[in-house]
Design goal:
Helix 12 packs across helix 13. 59% of the residues lie in helices and 0% in strands. 42% of the residues are buried. The two termini are 23 Å apart. It is an all-alpha fold.
Length: 245
């Protein structure tokens, strides 16, 4: 049974969704929203709580849930075909460069990748897993996952996480099983969605042009929003989506 996002948000939230599901489905859908319960995942969650806005936190968690569901729809099993905790860590940390904590002189993706790597190293994570997280965060706005060679030569956690993030920013309900997007949004509302993200990227770039070098997402946003700034960009970026935010 497909539920519109409007009805979910106007009604009783997650409880309303559960009541509308077929008998026996509510528990399964609750499990579908479960996050990894490992100590490291809990530390990443606390880092988000301490440093990111609610809009970015929710976006990060939605990206994880969408990516995990997309992988499962393609027959991939967490714990067997991909490292579920690693997907979560990528999503939880992918926008940490938009926080004051990790705001440096590089594009926000690189600042975030560097900070995320240090965070994981300080928590005892080995080089191989740190490298996967760094790669994913550093390239998550560049479209590299569309390359079949990139997918073949990089761990699946990267494309799973980045695909979920992409669905949240530029996708819509049709990219997921019927009703799943509604369920996720009831728990983790958009709170401005892509516009809220763009506002922070834009503000960082205006405050520090080093973060908006040609070819970056930040540069394209400034070109679009403030053409008088005339940063030497490569065009505009389309942040429209089908979620209705």
């Amino acid at each position: 049974m497909e539920l519109s996002r409007r009805n979910v948000l106007a009604g009783a939230g997650l409880a309303g969704v559960a009541m509308a599901l077929q008998p026996g489905q509510a528990g399964a859908e609750e499990d579908a929203l479960a996050l990894p319960g490992t100590p490291l995942a809990a530390k990443a969650q606390q880092l988000m709580e301490d440093s990111l806005t609610a809009a970015i936190r929710n976006h990060s968690v939605r990206g994880y849930l969408f990516g995990r569901r997309l992988a499962q729809e393609q027959g991939l099993r967490p714990g067997a075909d991909f490292d579920d905790e690693l997907v979560y860590l990528i999503c939880a940390l992918h926008d940490i460069g938009l926080s004051d904590l990790a705001n440096g002189d590089q594009r926000f993706e690189l600042d975030g990748a560097d900070f995320g790597a240090r965070f994981l190293e300080e928590n005892g994570v080995g080089d191989e897993r740190v490298d996967v997280v760094w790669d994913a965060i550093a390239v998550h706005t560049l479209g590299f996952i569309d390359s079949p060679v990139f997918r073949r030569r990089r761990r699946p956690e990267i494309w799973i996480a980045v695909s979920g993030i992409g669905i949240d920013v530029g996708g819509g309900p049709a990219d997921l099983p019927a009703g799943y997007g509604d369920l996720v949004h009831a728990r983790y509302p958009r709170l401005g969605g892509g516009r809220a993200l763009a506002d922070i990227v834009d503000a960082q770039a205006l405050a520090n042009p080093l973060k908006a070098m040609p070819g970056t997402l930040a540069n394209a946003l400034v070109q679009q929003r403030h053409p008088e700034k005339m940063l030497a960009g490569i065009g505009t970026i389309d942040l429209t989506n089908n979620w209705g935010d």
